[in-house]
TrEMBL record:
Protein name: cytokinin dehydrogenase
Cofactor(s), by name: FAD
Gene3D superfamilies: 3.30.465.10, FAD-linked oxidases, C-terminal domain, Uridine Diphospho-n-acetylenolpyruvylglucosamine Reductase, domain 2
Record text on subunit structure and interactions: Monomer.
Organism in which the protein naturally occurs: Rhynchospora pubera
Keyword Transcription regulation included in the entry's annotation: no
Domain annotation FAD-binding PCMH-type: ranges: 60-238
EC number(s) stated in the UniProt entry for this protein: 1.5.99.12
GO molecular function list: cytokinin dehydrogenase activity; FAD binding
Amino acid sequence: MAYLPRTRLSTTSFISLFITTLLTSTLSLPEELFSLEIGTKIRSDKQSLMLVASDFGNLTKSTPAAVFYPSSSHDIAGLIHFSYTHSTPFFISPRGHGHSINGQASCSNGVVIHMELLGQGRADRINVSVANRYMDVAGEQLWIDVLSASHAHRLRANSWTDYLHLTVGGTLSVGGISGQTFQHGPQISNVLELDVITGTGQQVTCSKTHNQDLFNAVLGGLGQFGIITRARIPLSPTPEKVKWIWLIYTNIVAFTRDQESLISIDENERHFGFLKYLEGSLLMEQGIIGSWRSSSFFSKNDMQRMAQLTAKHRLTALYYLEVVVAYDENIVAEVDQVILLFH
Ligand SMILES: Cc1cc2nc3c(=O)[nH]c(=O)nc-3n(C[C@H](O)[C@H](O)[C@H](O)COP(=O)(O)OP(=O)(O)OC[C@H]3O[C@@H](n4cnc5c(N)ncnc54)[C@H](O)[C@@H]3O)c2cc1C
């Protein structure tokens, strides 16, 4: 076994591929590795190690033995295969944009793969098939770039994260949720096919119908079941126009009731068929005013009104529903009527 998971989450037969020599992980890296071509892409200088020792959360510190800067999927497969076939295998962990908050992408004493380097300066890592309504995206790509590439064709993925400076491989390893999830499921439910490098260093294509065990394990698998190097994401046409609405609540009962009723409405029901995004949030105490200011959504007047509202009701928290309604020129009047229903 070569591709040692940092943590082990279950005991399915698939995982058994990865679990045998976990305890050997404290060994330093085998010397022969550095005489191979991939060895020239491994760095263990202090600066490289420090850059991946922590993550966005800054709660944990876990220094690897080395950082691997691959130029291709083939390099990654080579590293994993080397470890798998070696008598003293080592931990390997892919790192996307490092926006985990508790060390999920790090690995003490092992090798962290710097996935993002794969895509640097390479426009060919995102390919949109307009005719087939899908895009093939390399695992290290940021969702913000995925959005730009698909939007250029007036197409979009169905399910997103709110924050888009996260990698495709990183969010497909955790789930990926946002305001479209109530309608389309998380991002991991919106994937047609994956290219994965397994724990033995094999490059395997998988989908719901082909190598489905691997497909199901890798999606939401926290990088424990293989490394995603390509994902095929289905696309839909972008709406012609959208209205972005924030509904502010002082009362949590009304807030949750409205949220629940909105997500339960049948998508095909006439008025709400074009509800495309729904997310509920809480604004707390001093954060209330600060959070409002950080949004370009509200005018100065709006913010004053909200400040008055909190003062009047002596509130320490406000609730809001963020709603997006899609429409086109033919139904502007109808949409305005629906929006009135929200007031
Ligand atoms: C500011 C901020 C905003 C966020 N917003 C949202 C949000 O709106 N919705 C949401 O769902 N989540 C959100 N998250 C959480 C985020 O989706 C996860 O932390 C995600 O894992 C981060 O992606 P990353 O590219 O930084 O991955 P990393 O943190 O680098 O890695 C995350 C995990 O994925 C594994 N991994 C990385 N690349 C690959 C790969 N190619 N193949 C297999 N495994 C891989 C790593 O080993 C690790 O286990 C947010 C996080 C932050 C910090």
